[in-house]
Specification:
Elements: H1 3-28, H2 36-43, H3 47-53, H4 57-80, H5 86-103, H6 105-118, H7 125-151, H8 160-175, H9 179-187, H10 192-207
Length: 228
């Protein structure tokens, strides 16, 4: 390894350490309550040096989000790369998204509370990269729905792009569900996990070709009408 490569490796390690530290601070408190000076002190740098790695606190936020988006994008690619029907791929992507949200609650809390305001910054290159990846994720969902229509496992009266947008919008809304709505559910005896499970079931029924195919490849037979 050359001297230049060693310098680059050290720089990347320090950048990762800064991101990890900032992420912990944002998760433990809030984005607005943490200062760049505090982050610099926590990582053992002066503020001027910190700005050599991240030009402002917004860039730190976007870098944290980008790491998670890349991880989720890889999970989606793993789902779409399997030799299964388009319907099953779409179900796996939906389940994977909520599993990821369940495993990263602090991240989604930060994203849902801080993200809407910061993503107004269209000039930040990290924000632009995030948008591009999110666009690719939407295309992945669209493509597996299209694949399902072609293989007969997804309803053929759906527009794949329109349905992909429906899924994206509603899924994001559910992981960003406000405490007030969660309280409404709890008062009705419905846990958040049950709410998510029911949502996935509802969405499955809305896209599956009829009659609904079983996981083993057999189709469900229509229920016999009862004689009166």
């Amino acid at each position: 390894m050359s001297f230049q490569e060693l310098i680059e490796k050290e720089r990347e390690q320090r950048r990762t350490y800064i991101l990890d530290t900032a992420e912990k601070l944002f998760f433990a408190r809030s984005f607005t309550s943490v200062t760049m000076e505090e982050i610099a002190k926590k990582v053992g740098l002066n503020k001027a040096t910190l700005y050599l790695y991240f030009e402002d606190k917004d860039s730190l936020f976007f870098a944290i989000v980008l790491r998670k988006v890349r991880t989720l994008h890889k999970i989606y690619n793993d789902c779409t790369g399997q030799k299964i029907s388009g319907r099953e791929k779409s179900h796996k992507i939906g389940a994977a998204f909520f599993d990821f949200a369940r495993a990263n609650p602090d991240y989604f809390r930060l994203l849902c509370t801080t993200g809407p305001g910061l993503f107004q910054n269209k000039e930040n290159p990290l924000a632009q990269t995030i948008r591009e990846l999110l666009g690719k994720e939407l295309c992945l969902v669209r493509d597996v729905l299209k694949e399902g229509i072609e293989d007969g496992s997804v309803r053929n009266d759906l527009d794949p792009l329109e349905m992909a947008v429906y899924i994206s919008v509603t899924s994001t809304s559910i992981v960003c569900l406000s405490p007030d709505w969660r309280n409404v559910l709890e008062q009705g005896g419905i846990t958040y996990d049950q709410f998510v499970a029911d949502y996935l079931r509802f969405m499955s029924k809305s896209i599956d070709a009829r009659p609904y195919p079983e996981e083993n490849g057999k189709e469900k037979k229509p229920a016999k009408k009862q004689k009166i």
